[in-house]
Design goal:
heterodimer; A: about 300 residues; alpha/beta; Rossmann fold; Heat Shock Protein 90; 2 domains; 7-stranded mixed β-sheet; 5-stranded antiparallel β-sheet; 9 helices; 12 strands; about 40% helix; about 25% strand; B: about 260 residues; mainly alpha; Arc Repressor Mutant, subunit A; 3 domains; 3 strands
Chain lengths: ~300, ~260
């Protein structure tokens, strides 16, 4: 099933009450079920209970997912949802999903998750998925609500699906919401070595000296390997590797010899033919990754 | 050390450590903020079906969730950030546990019948009955069986942590009755078991894990592929292949594509 230029249809519902939420989402899911589509409800436990009750016998055909511990970091949330979509699309030709966004109370969170919503439009563009992101308007600040209109091509208003007249290009939104990386002093060069294996040995030594847990050290080794392989394949090779601490976190910079790229969604696109997977993997395993042109070359800065 | 005794740097180190799955940092973070979590729980009126220890346990879980989400760059004090999630988690727990069961008397009787039939089947066959078998045993229609079973099904969690590496969790022992009482805080701390839940290495088989972790000195002395091979009765090249296979396995696990056909 194709919707417009992408397979994905990404809408939003801002609801004032649980009754309104149920009244709009249940028919949306039922329509999909009747058309032979899969159905997913992602919410906290009380929300899931409401939906289960409202769906009645149809609940047996719906997958219910508790998002109470989800929405920690955008890349990880994208990966978790993607894993769910992959599983569902193995059983269904297309899918409808209702997902309640846990946007929190801190303004820094709102911007981060607005960026997440913007990148969803690109991340899942190839999937036959109609996802309705729901936002509880109770206590939701204007900044969050404005972000909903900017990041969703469609918004449900008074029970009717409408095109958002404030929807903005995902890349432009993401760029506007992504802070410029600040220069870091205090990092020191450890070099790359002869090959990725030697690079991993050097990096692992630094992580062990830092006292990183075995699990976290392995995460960074895998992530850094992906970034390094990217640098080798697309960036003319690794010029330097620098490590150190900043803001309480272990940092690893990988500098390559190439021109670099300028894609704010790099590493956020869910796996598909024609799109590299290395940065998708690396983003899941790290706190964040920044890409920028430094004086000595195009740099990927991995924060653990 | 309690939260008010932590310097901002110490607080940041503990939060980052807990987010990274460091068991010691997690324990210290929970110790530091447990009084505050207990304070939030104390603000909830007593409700039938909701135990105070359950509220505190949920609060601790949400504290650790907040640690996995909190970014110190933005300057918000950690408890100012985390208290929202702690309170929200407790509110959701109360809503879940005090929710009236919206079943008619007839449905309640049918559910009881279904549970008995399932229990009888399990005892007789040591296997889970199908909906068809339950329908046959109870006289309920297949649709009725499905609907009643759906009311009891626990939702799965949307797992993030597998992709994000290590995660710790905190669980309570069963002996604590009232964690709100201040003198019992130490007992509550003792009852909390902080354990590492999972890591990327769990996706590997034992040999792959041994080779990978030994080659990079993770949790054990670092060794060359020659040394690793010698220990396993393999050549260094074979050990290298095992390592490459392990990395490939991790890569594929983290980057599975959806089974969809792209438009031309």
């Amino acid at each position: 099933m194709t919707y417009g230029e992408t397979a994905l249809r990404h809408g939003a519902l801002v609801y004032e009450s649980q009754d309104e939420y149920v009244a709009l989402t249940v028919p949306f899911l039922r329509e999909g079920l009747e058309a032979g589509e899969g159905a997913v409800v992602a919410h906290t436990k009380p929300g899931l209970a409401d939906m289960r009750e409202a769906l009645g016998p149809d609940a047996a055909d719906v997958t219910f997912v508790d998002v109470g511990s989800t929405y920690t970091r955008p890349a990880r949330t994208l990966a978790a949802y993607h894993e769910l979509w992959v599983e569902q699309l193995k059983e269904n030709p297309s899918l409808r999903a209702v997902a309640d966004v846990q946007f929190g109370s801190d303004p820094s969170d709102w911007l981060l998750w607005a960026g997440y919503e913007a990148v969803v439009n690109r991340s899942f563009a190839h999937l036959p998925l109609w996802v309705l992101c729901t936002y509880n308007a109770s206590g939701a600040p204007d900044l969050v609500l404005d972000g909903v209109w900017r990041t969703h091509p469609e918004v449900v208003v008074d029970g009717t699906w409408s095109e958002s007249d404030r929807y903005d290009d995902p890349d432009r939104t993401l760029r506007a919401l992504t802070p410029e990386p600040e220069p870091l002093s205090g990092l020191r060069s450890i070099g790359f070595g002869r090959d990725p294996a030697e690079f991993r040995v050097r990096l692992a030594h630094e992580l062990v000296v830092e006292g990183k847990t075995q699990a976290k050290a392995l995460d960074l080794l895998v992530a850094a390997t992906e970034v390094a392989n990217n640098a080798i394949e697309h960036g003319g090779g690794v010029k330097d590797v620098r490590v150190g601490r900043a803001d309480g976190r272990f940092v690893c910079e990988i500098v390559d010899r190439g021109e670099g790229f300028d894609d704010p969604a790099a590493g956020y696109l869910a796996p598909r033919p024609g799109v590299g997977r290395g940065l998708w993997i690396a983003r899941q395993l790290t706190w964040r990754i920044e890409f920028f042109r430094a004086q000595d070359g195009f740099t990927a800065r991995l924060w653990l | 050390m309690y939260a008010e005794e932590l310097t901002p740097r110490q607080e940041r180190e503990l939060v980052i450590g807990a987010e990274a799955g460091d068991v010691d940092a997690t324990r210290k973070l929970v110790e530091a903020y447990l009084p505050a979590v207990v304070g939030v729980a104390a603000g909830f009126p007593d409700a039938p079906g909701v135990e105070r220890r359950e509220l505190v346990q949920e609060g601790v879980a949400r504290l650790l969730f907040a640690a996995r989400r909190y970014d110190s760059r933005f300057g918000t004090p950690f408890w100012s950030y985390a208290s929202f999630w702690v309170r929200k988690g407790m509110q959701e727990l109360v809503a879940e546990l005090t929710r009236p069961v919206a079943l008619s008397d007839r449905a309640v009787r049918s559910l009881a019948l279904l549970r008995r039939a399932r229990s009888d089947y399990l005892q007789a066959h040591s296997a889970e009955p199908t909906d068809e078998q339950l329908s046959s045993a109870t006289g309920l229609t297949r649709a009725q069986v499905e609907s009643l079973r759906a009311t009891e099904r626990r939702p799965r969690a949307l797992e993030e942590s597998l992709a994000g590496g290590a995660e710790t969790t905190a669980v309570f022992g069963d002996t604590i009755v009232d964690p709100v009482a201040e003198q019992e805080l130490e007992e509550v701390l003792d009852a909390i078991e902080i354990r590492e839940v999972r890591s990327l290495a769990d996706e590997l088989d034992e040999r792959e894990r041994d080779v990978l972790l030994a080659h990079y000195g993770l949790g054990r002395p670092v060794r060359t592929l020659n040394e690793i091979g010698a220990t396993l009765g393999l050549t260094a090249e074979r050990a290298r292949q095992i390592e490459a296979g392990a990395l490939k396995k991790l890569r594929e696990g983290l980057a599975q594509a959806a089974p969809v056909r792209l438009n031309a």
